[in-house]
Amino acid sequence: MNPAPPRRRDRPRLPAAVRRRQILDVTTRLIAERGFWGLSMQDVADDCGLTVPGLLHHVGTKDKLLVAVLEHRDDQDHQSLAEALGRPAGEVPLPEICDALVRRNAAQPEIVRLFAVLEAESLAPGHPAHDYFARRQQTTITTMTGLARAYGVPDPETLARQVMALMDGLQIQWLRDPGGIDLVATWTAAAGTLFR
């Protein structure tokens, strides 16, 4: 008896940019559900209609795929924020930028969950996103410090750290109880005190 031939995957030919976007979207969803350590390249390949070697052809390694997902999400968030503000971030007061960020995040809980899970996992120095999140945190604090300084705050770095801690903390509470916590309303109430 001859063994059954290997199953052939339906692999529609997609332009490279479209295929890469598909891979990033599938990976984003899977990481949000399982975390990076629960991510299987086989599952990503299956969901994209690819073989694992075909997937690796597009992304290189699992570690590179993770960083590509994070950078892709950052690019999308920056573009969305700029559109929501209607002018360059440097011309917008810090409270208004923070409000826009919170509103954006409230509309995409799966992405907020992705970043929360990965940020916690990446506290381990061996995690492939450890350096990415360290750089991201420093960049965020530096940017918010500059915005707070322009806002006339006497200790802008302290305010920047407080804003970041408040946003992160409220988002974790909201992710744990999305039906019980209104992220935007809770942020607005807290920001009234923070920016007073």
TrEMBL record:
Sorted keywords for this record are: DNA-binding
Tell me where in this chain the HTH tetR-type domain is found: 17-77
Record-level Gene Ontology MF annotations: DNA-binding transcription factor activity; transcription cis-regulatory region binding
Against InterPro entries, the record matches this protein to: Homeodomain-like_sf (IPR009057), HTH-type_TetR-like_transc_reg (IPR050109), HTH_TetR (IPR001647), Tet_transcr_reg_TetR-rel_C_sf (IPR036271)
Please tell me whether the keyword Signal is annotated for this protein.
no
Q: Is DNA-binding a UniProt keyword of this protein? A: yes
Annotated DNA-binding ranges come to 40-59
Q: What is this protein called?
A: TetR family transcriptional regulator
